[in-house]
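**Fold tokens**
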Amino acid sequence: MTHAPKAYGYVRLRPDAGERELLHIDRSLRHCADRHALRIVGILYEEGPGLSPDRLIRRLGRDGIRHVVVPSLRQITEHPPLRRHLARAIILGAGARLYEADLLTGAGHFTTGA
């Protein structure tokens, strides 16, 4: 049994995303988590129009999770103001650390949400 801190993955489902792309995203999230000594315990999927991180923020608080790994903020939304809003909601609203996985290598990096 591992004592690595728990993390949630957070992914935006696109209508045109195929199974191969989703598998690649999943592997990238898990590789990024491994590189940061984290353990992904679940992946939350956002779908449909608009962006509402409320469900994620509630789950983080309820489950005591303090780490979130996303493929990239751009994958979640292409709108810079919404990316900043999401990052701030995770970091300031939930008190969690946010990691963006590099979709090419899965190495990832920590983001401040600035």
